[in-house]
Structure formats: C-alpha cells, structure tokens
C-alpha cells in the first residue's frame, strides 16, 4: 500500500507555485483596493472605501455591462461554432482527428498580439477583404469592418474557440456510442437522437467550455485594444489603464475585485441554471 | 408457422476480410432463435445487420417479406436489448422506458397506460423515478427489456443481455426471459456465447463459427446429433476418436467404465485412471488410453458402486448407437 505522506508531498510544488504567484498577489490586490492613491501615483497606506464608491459611476457601470454583453455573446457564438466543429472532429477517423485537433491548437503557438494584428490586416479599410470587394466593384466605399463591437466579438470568438472545442470534443469522445444506437433503435431520427441523447450527455463539455470562454473573455484586453479601437473599451482595458497609464493601483485593484466577484456570481448562477434544467428534465 | 425474417444470401465484409460469408436463414414468427458461438464468430455482426446498424455487403434482409436495406434502424419494427444495456444515464427509469413511445409520438394517455403495464410486468413500479446509476445490474437489465418491449416490436433482438450479471441472477433471468417470450409471443433473436443459456431458452440454436452457421437445429438435436466437429466440441463435452479418416464423437455420459477382468465383450479400449474430479452430482473421470496419446473423459454418477482410484487399470466401452460420426 502507498504511504499517504509522500503522496501528499507531490502536490507541494504546485501548491507553493499557486501560493506565491496566485494567492499572495490576489491578497495584495484585495488590500490595495482599500488604500488611497497619492498625487504621483504612489500608494498611500490609508483605509478608504472611495475606490468602490467610484465604481458606481454610470461610466463604469456601462463598461461593466458592455463587457458582460460581449462575454455572453462570445460564449454563445463559441458554442454555436465550436459544438459542430467538435462533433465533426469526433466523428472522424482517429488519425484524421489528431490532425484536426492540432489545427485547433496551432493558433496557441503563435503570439496573441500577432494574431490580433493579422485580423487588422484582413479587416481594415485598405485590408484584404475591402480591397478585394472594391476590385470586384461590389462596393465603392470600404466597409467599416474594424474598430466596432462586431470586430471585437469576431476576435474574441476566434481567440477563445479552442477553449470551447476541446472540452466538448472530450465529452463527445467519452460518450458511449451505443447510447446513440439505442436511441435510433427506439425510433429517434438522427436529429432527435442528437437533441435528446447526445446533447444532454455532452452537457458537461459545454458547461466547462462556456466557463473557460466566459471567464477568459471577461478579462480580455488585447483584442478590444487592437481590434476595437478607443470606442470599444471593455473592463479589461480600463483595469490595464489604471495600472499602467493612470497609475491608480488602488482603483484598478477595486475594479479587479468587483470583476472577479461578478464573474464568480455569474458562474454560480450558470451552474444553478444548468442544474435546474437537469432536475426539470428529471421530473418531467 | 409464418416466416417473419428472411436473410437472403447475406454476406458481410470489412475492408477485404469476410466477417460473415454468404448464407441464408429464415426465422419464424414467435420463435426463440439463439445465435451461439465463441467471441468474434460474427454473431453480433449478424444481429446488428438485422437491427440496421450494419449493412450487409451483399444480400437482402426481409421483415414480413419487405426488404430492409433502405430502412434505417429507427424505422424498423424491431427493438434491441443492448449488451451493457445502453440506458440513458440522464433520464429516469420512466423516461428511459417511455423514450420509444415519445419518439413515435404516441398520445400521452396511451403512453401512461403502456408504461404502467410494462412497469408492473418487469416489477419496476417502485423504482420508476430512479436513474440507471441507482439501480443494480439486474434492475438495469429489466429497464432495458421494458424499454424495448413497451414498443410492441415484431422482433426483439438481444445482444448478450445477461452477460454482465452474476451466475445466480443469470440463471433466474434465463427462465424469466423465456416466459416473457412465451407470454408476449414476440420473436426473439438472442445472441450469446453461453451454451447453457442457449440450451435452456431456445427453440432453435444457430451455432456459429468464424462467421459461418455450422448447424441450426433444436437444442436436443444440436446436442445429440452434431453435424460438424466444431458443434460436437463446442456444445457440451465430447470425446473425439480419430480413426480411419473419420471422427467419432462420444459424450462423456455415454462412456462406461469396466474393471479389466469383467464384461470383456463390452471393452473397446484399455487405459489408466489419470484423474478423478468430484463435482457433487457426478465425478469426472479422466482415462489415459494405452498406446494412444489421448485422454478420455467419462461421467460417473453417484451410487454406481464403483469408486475409481487414480492409477487403476480400466476398460472403457460404449454403445454403437451413441457414436456420432463426423466428417473431418
């Protein structure tokens, strides 16, 4: 039998890492959010609630709201595009699956900023799409494809899609195909079998993917920065600004804390909702 | 009796390998037919072709004289009880059982009526709100059967339905299944590798080996008059004597043991007791033949007054009528 003690030690490196690089900074942020900013951007060690009161300014409220809308839309579009892709991959031959999964993951190997700028080159007024359409004479003026909420959404879905595809693919792979055959056998058409058996049985993948995408998009600042222009600032950009340009660390910290609590609350609600639909199905 | 299913020159190939070589077979209405064979013999493939999950490479399957090759599984008037049951884990017992009726849009009142009947029939009324995870293997098996028979299928296909259960439970469920089949009058096509199961339940057994049906007959006929060496050795135990280009099969219970100095006219061969295994109602006696590289097995029932010891010399004999001559 394995001795428990050495096994416990195996978790130690990870615990130390997370402790030093995640828990401690989080505590520092929490403390910072209750302190004051000095005239030259330094932190003054005096307790205040002003940072939190400032968040209730309608300006920030609007940005929080916009961020949530973009995050929810990003999640929804990622499901709509990611699920069919994951489904398609899971139905391929094993060797072909490997190639497709690799293709899904390759963008991760390329710098994030480079990928965002690649989109700028495609979408801008003198970009690939506009030049092409103009040369065909389909449009006379370049279309405003960049620097709006649509382009931000496009960039976000593009960037975060792998986080949706992979967990859904895994749950599709784990699903016992005989359950699907059982559904066909009992008279379900392929579409009904998908709706009543495959989708409910792969819900875990969708939930996991949604949380990964939602949480990542809520704090995203590079994409809105590069593809959204000044008009489409999201909360991630505001926080980045507070820390880097405005040099107001306490306010940036307060925004971070509120953002974090808000995401946690929303994830909790999401869990509740998916659980509730499960029990509803269960009693119907 | 009326034919319900007819397989006409069915053949199945995967890539270039022939899994089921061409053959024809008719199944009668209300019959309990078992496809019996070792694993990998093609019996499950055959069942899946009837269900529609696999297409025969050539040939046609008829249900009530209608060809099925262009009928998808969800439009075939038969249901399957899957190996490991394939119950839907996200649904309750009730929802699992109702699934087929819901898919066929049977009206709600009828659904409820049939549900109550079936639940009662398989004795699951009290467990109706549970999910499959909360059930024992035997209970899951009942759900799988209920889920199939609620649709009143013309044919029920069963793929090793008792394979995952322990011995005692399997025994009692064999009888239950047989009774169910009699009472409902549904045609059963049953796949198993367990010959005892096949013997206990079937009207006819199709013994399969390497994709081929070696023999199809009643259990008694399969046992008493096997037509091939495979059937003779796969079903029950047998002693095969190879002589002059033929095989003679003699069942262990037909072999008689004699002390070497009595009944000399009945002696066929001489040997030495190599081993004797006590099994409760009988003893299996292994006899090493003299001058031959062969061990014969004989069953000795309790109370015959002969207590054979290992190392003893013995003569064996059998009635000529108990010999089954098989082609090589």
Task: Give a nutshell description of this structure.
The complex is a heterodimer of chains A (284) and B (328). Chain A has 284 residues and is an all-alpha fold.
Protein architecture, described:
By secondary structure, chain A is an all-alpha fold. Chain A has a single domain, classed as MetI-like fold, CATH 1.10.3720. Chain A is built from 14 helices and two strands. Chain A has a two-stranded antiparallel sheet with strand order 1-2. In chain A, a hairpin with a 5-residue loop joins β1 and β2. The longest helix of chain A is centred in the C-terminal third of the chain and has 35 residues. Chain A is globular and about 70 Å long. The mean pLDDT of chain A is 88. Chain B is of the alpha+beta class. The longest helix of chain B has 18 residues. Chain B contains eight helices and 18 strands. In chain B, α2 runs parallel beside α4. In chain B, the strands form four sheets. Chain B has a six-stranded mixed β-sheet with strand order 6-7-8-3-9-10, with helices on both faces. Chain B has a five-stranded antiparallel β-sheet with strand order 13-17-14-15-16, with no helix packed on it. In chain B, strands 2-1-4-5 form a four-stranded antiparallel β-sheet, with helices on one face. In chain B, a hairpin with a 2-residue loop joins β1 and β2. Chain B starts with a strand and ends with a strand. At the A-B interface, α9, α10 and α14 of A face α2 of B.
- Using the alpha-carbon principal axes, give the shape of chain A: globular
Which protein chains are joined by the largest interface, and how many residues does each one contribute?
A-B, 23 and 28 residues
Secondary-structure content class of chain A? mainly alpha
Query: How would a textbook summarize the main sheet of chain A?
Result: 2 strands, antiparallel
What's the number of domains of chain B?
Answer: 2
How many domains is the backbone of chain A divided into? 1
SSE order of chain A in H/E notation? HHEEHHHHHHHHHHHH
Percent in helix of chain B: 25-40%
Q: Please identify the top-level CATH class of the largest domain in chain B.
A: Alpha Beta
**Overall outline of chain B:** elongated
Q: What is the helix/strand order of chain B?
A: EEEHEEEHHHEHEHEEHHEEEEEEEE
Over the alpha carbons, how many angstroms does the gyration radius of chain B reach? 24 Å
Just name the CATH architecture of chain A. Answer: Orthogonal Bundle
> What profile does the largest beta sheet of chain B have?
6 strands, mixed
Give start-end ranges of low-pLDDT stretches of chain B: none
Radius of gyration of chain A: 23 Å
* CATH topology-level name of the largest domain in chain B: Rossmann fold
CATH top level assignment of chain A: Mainly Alpha
CATH architecture of the largest domain in chain B: 3-Layer(aba) Sandwich
Question: Care to count the β-strands of chain B?
Answer: 18
């Amino acid at each position: 039998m394995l001795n428990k003690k050495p096994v416990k030690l195996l978790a130690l490196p990870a615990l130390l890492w997370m402790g030093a690089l995640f828990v401690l900074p989080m505590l520092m942020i929490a403390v910072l959010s209750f302190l004051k900013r000095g005239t030259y951007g330094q932190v003054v060690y005096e307790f205040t609630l002003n940072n939190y009161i400032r968040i209730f300014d309608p300006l920030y409220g609007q940005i929080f709201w916009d961020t949530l809308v973009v995050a929810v839309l990003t999640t929804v579009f990622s499901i709509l595009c990611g699920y069919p892709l994951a489904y398609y991959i899971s139905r391929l031959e094993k060797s072909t699956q490997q190639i497709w999964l690799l293709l899904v993951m390759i963008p991760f190997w390329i710098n994030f900023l480079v990928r965002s700028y690649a989109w700028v080159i495609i979408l801008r007024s003198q970009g690939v799409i506009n030049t092409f359409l103009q040369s065909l004479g389909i449009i006379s003026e370049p279309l405003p494809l960049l620097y709006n909420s649509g382009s931000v959404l496009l960039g976000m879905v593009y960037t975060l899609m792998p986080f949706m595809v992979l967990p859904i693919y895994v749950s599709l792979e784990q699903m016992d195909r005989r359950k699907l055959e059982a559904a066909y056998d009992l008279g379900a058409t392929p579409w009904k079998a998908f709706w009543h058996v495959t989708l409910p049985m792969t819900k875990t993948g969708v939930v996991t993917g949604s949380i990964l995408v939602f949480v990542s998009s809520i704090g995203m600042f590079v994409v809105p920065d590069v593809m959204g222009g000044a008009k489409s600032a999201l909360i991630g950009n505001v926080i980045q600004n507070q820390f880097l340009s405005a040099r107001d660390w306490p306010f940036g910290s307060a925004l971070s804390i509120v953002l974090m609590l808000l995401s946690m609350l929303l994830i909790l609600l999401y869990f509740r909702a998916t659980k509730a639909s499960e029990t509803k199905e269960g009693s119907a | 009796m009326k034919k319900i299913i007819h397989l006409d020159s069915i053949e199945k190939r995967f890539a270039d390998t022939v899994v089921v070589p061409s053959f024809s077979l008719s199944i009668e209405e209300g019959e309990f037919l078992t496809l019996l064979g070792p694993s990998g013999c093609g019996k499950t493939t055959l069942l899946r072709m009837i269900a529609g999950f696999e297409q025969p490479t050539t040939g046609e399957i008829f249900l009530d004289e209608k060809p099925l090759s262009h009928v998808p599984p969800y439009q075939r008037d038969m249901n399957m009880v899957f190996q490991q049951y394939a119950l839907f884990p996200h649904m309750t017992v009730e929802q699992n059982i109702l699934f087929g009726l819901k898919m066929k849009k049977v009206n709600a009142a009828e659904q409820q009526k049939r549900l109550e009947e079936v639940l009662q029939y398989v004795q699951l009324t009290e467990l109706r709100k549970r999910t499959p995870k909360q059930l024992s293997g035997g209970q899951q098996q009942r759900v799988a059967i209920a889920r199939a028979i609620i649709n009143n299928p013309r044919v029920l296909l069963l793929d090793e339905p008792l394979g995952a259960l322990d011995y005692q439970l399997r025994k009692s469920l064999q009888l239950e299944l047989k009774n169910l089949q009699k009472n409902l009058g549904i045609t059963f096509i049953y796949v198993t590798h367990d010959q005892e199961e096949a013997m206990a339940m079937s009207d006819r057994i199709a013994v399969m080996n390497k994709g081929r049906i070696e023999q199809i007959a009643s259990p008694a006929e399969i046992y008493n008059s096997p037509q091939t060496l495979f059937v003779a050795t796969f079903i029950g135990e047998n002693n095969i004597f190879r002589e002059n280009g033929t095989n003679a099969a003699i069942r262990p219970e037909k072999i008689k043991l004699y002390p070497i100095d009595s009944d000399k006219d009945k002696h066929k061969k001489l040997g030495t007791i190599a081993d004797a295994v006590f099994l409760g109602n009988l003893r299996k006696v292994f006899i090493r033949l003299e001058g031959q590289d062969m061990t014969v097995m004989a069953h000795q029932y309790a109370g015959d007054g002969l207590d054979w010891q290992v190392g003893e010399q013995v003569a064996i004999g059998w009635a000529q009528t108990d010999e089954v001559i098989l082609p090589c």
